[in-house]
Amino acid sequence: MTRTIGVISGKGGVGKTTIVANLGAALAHRFKKDVTIVDCNLTASHLSLLLGMDYYPVTLNHVLRNEKHISEAIYEHPSGMKIIPASLQLKDLIKVDISKISRHLKKLRGKTDIIFLDSSPGLGKEAVATIKASKEIIFVTKPDIMSVSDVIRGKEFVEKIKKEPMGIVLNMVTRSGHELTKKEVEVMTELPVIAIIPHDKNVPKSLAKRMPVVLHKPRSSASKELRKLAGFIIGEKELGFFEKLIRFLKT
Ligand SMILES: Nc1ncnc2c1ncn2[C@@H]1O[C@H](COP(=O)(O)OP(=O)(O)O)[C@@H](O)[C@H]1O
Ligand SMILES: [Mg+2]
Q: How far is 147 from 188, CA to CA, in rounded Å?
């Protein structure tokens, strides 16, 4: 069965695209899952930029214009994950109807294990279409009052249209004392915090190399938490060094 997970936020710049790219890479590379990540943020399409895959002839825009089948817009990243990019060109926004995304994604059912949808922030047309096309929802927020209050509004909408909120990813956590704690966020939103990802300079460093941090700096603190989140989503634990060694020796 194919799971479709929307990654959303109230505010922009909280790390949705980073998290989608890294979950995709971790699940494909470490957990050997068939994962497809889709750039649903047509007006700020950053996913392919982050992965160094920014020129591709067929994009989600062509699919939404009914010019191409969705299978023609799928490209493979070296990690093994698949990506459906959105166009970076202004002209490709013409006659694109994001509300049709759900219909096109249905054609991938049974062909991939997990689809992650990288949303635009807020509850505008693109984000609403992304939420409607998803079954499960991950909220990404920084641990500050404004971002978290946007999650409350987002959760209300998600529940109203009968989607399943999986929980909150707290990103760019510095533990500097003035941030909301996990407990405070959970009490405010009535949602579980499923990951706490530290603010880590290796994330922008990896962006400069156009690689997901889980591949570029796998031992960094952000990478460890991103892999843990990937394992949580599929209900598996990443094997430690000794567990891997024992498994290897047994084979
Ligand atoms: N955990 C982190 N630590 C440090 N920088 C981060 C982290 N997560 C994201 N960033 C940086 O924050 C910026 C915004 O991230 P992005 O994923 O584009 O957010 P969004 O998709 O929500 O707009 C990028 O420059 C990214 O490298
Ligand atoms: Mg983004």
A: 12
Q: What is the pTM of this model?
A: 0.94
List, in order, residues 6 or more apart from 44 with CB less than 8 Å away: 12, 120
Q: What is the dihedral of CA 117, 49, 43, 149, to 10 degrees?
A: 60
Quickly state the pLDDT bin for 94 (edges 50, 70, 90).
confident
Beta strand segments in 40-162, E: 75-76, 82-84, 114-118, 136-141
Residue nearest to atom 9 of ligand 1 (CA): 15
Interatomic CA distance for residues 125 and 111, integer angstroms? 27
206-241 per-position pLDDT tens digit: 999 999 999 999 999 999 999 999 999 999 877 677
CA-206 nearest atom, ligand 1: 27
Ligand 2 center–CA 234 separation, angstroms = 23
Q: What is the pLDDT of residues 158-215, one digit of tens each?
A: 999 999 999 999 999 998 889 999 999 999 999 999 999 999 999 999 999 999 999 9
Q: How far is the CA of 72 from the centre of ligand 2 (A)?
A: 23
For residue 106, what are the contacts with CB-CB under 8 A and spacing of at least 6?
Answer: none
Q: Which fold has domain 3-250?
A: Rossmann fold (3.40.50)
Distance 15 CA to ligand 1 centre (A): 4
Residue 197 CA, closest ligand 1 atom number: 1
Which protein residue has the closest C-alpha to ligand 1 atom 3? Answer: 199
